[in-house]
Amino acid sequence: MPLSAVPAPPPRTDAGAAALASLVGDPEQAMLAFDFDGTLAPIIDDPEQAHAHDRSLAALQRIGPCVGKLAVITGRPVRTALRLGAFAERDGMSHLTILGQYGAERWDSSTGDESVPPPPEAVAEVRAALPALLDSMGLADVRIEDKGRAVVLHTRGLPDPAGAQALLEGPLAELAEQHGLAAEPGRFVVEVRDPSVDKGAALRGLVAETDVRTIVYAGDDLGDLPAYEALTVMRDAGEVEALLVAVASDEQPALVPRADVVLHGPDELADWLERLADALDC
Ligand SMILES: [Mg+2]
């Protein structure tokens, strides 16, 4: 592969460079998978107002027809991801699968079929207990996002978001545990959900069914670590080639030391995808 065909910045690892060469050399056997918030979509105070980056979407519309699979693997419900990304209305996305709520929900562009199983009763019980808990802690201004299968508490936009998150984590872990759930931290969020579902298992399942050989995964937060771990294990076993992309922020550095390519924010991911679209030239 000529150097000019490598989207900048080039991978900083040999394994990442090999995966990128495989992707560009034979895109039909490759899958590109993305987290949504903080990766394809810039993070903003109100999660309901988030939207996918226009340039990333335009690049994916160019890339989509020539790769084996496009995937969005998100903590959001699939219906929310479909609304915020308008994925169903876009050309070039005929190989797109959205795995929502960490893989519990699914939508396929090829069929338009959607699988949204009913949420666990325990989540509604936690949701009902939250206003009294937040009031008692003086945190009534915390934004509650009800996702059905999970409840997310957002401290972004408060005067001290990190301090509020730190205050919340213990009591929420206790409340979640009482209901057989877990409280998972993220970027100025704590999410109460079923811990048996994660992005690692979701990604593994998609790799097994699509039989792709090269996988690119881009994420920004702690919920993406299981996907990183799954790909690292498969790569070390020689089952796949993998390119791990970190969309880095000051808020969450956990993915950076494990990544093959480090980009700074969704804008730089858009730049990288545009260069990848140029390199694939399809
Ligand atoms: Mg994210």
List the helices and strands and how they pair.
Layout (H helix, E strand, L loop, with lengths): L13 H12 L4 E5 L19 H10 L5 E5 L4 H8 L10 E5 L4 E4 L5 E2 L5 H16 L6 E4 L3 E5 L6 H18 L3 E5 L2 E5 L5 H12 L3 E6 L5 H12 L4 E8 L12 E4 H16 L2
Parallel strand pairs: 1-2, 1-10, 2-3, 10-11, 11-12
Antiparallel strand pairs: 3-4, 4-5, 6-7, 7-9, 8-9
Bound molecules: magnesium ion.
Name the features.
alpha/beta, globular, binds magnesium ion, Rossmann fold, 282 residues, Alpha-Beta Plaits, four-stranded antiparallel sheet, 8 helices
CATH domain class name of the largest domain:
Alpha Beta
Report low-confidence residues grouped into runs of 5 or more: none
**First-last Cα distance:** 16 Å
Please give the radius of gyration in angstroms.
19 Å
Structural class: alpha/beta
The main sheet comes to:
8 strands, mixed
What name goes with the CATH superfamily of the largest domain?
Answer: HAD superfamily/HAD-like
Record field, number of beta strands: 12
Bound molecules: magnesium ion
Number of separate helices: 8
- CATH fold-level topology of the largest domain: Rossmann fold
**Architecture of the largest domain, CATH level 2?**
3-Layer(aba) Sandwich
Percentage of residues assigned to helices: 25-40%
Order of helices and strands: HEHEHEEEHEEHEEHEHEEH
The number of domains: 2
Mean pLDDT: 95
Estimate the strand proportion.
15-25%
What strand line-up does the widest sheet have? Answer: 5-4-3-2-1-10-11-12
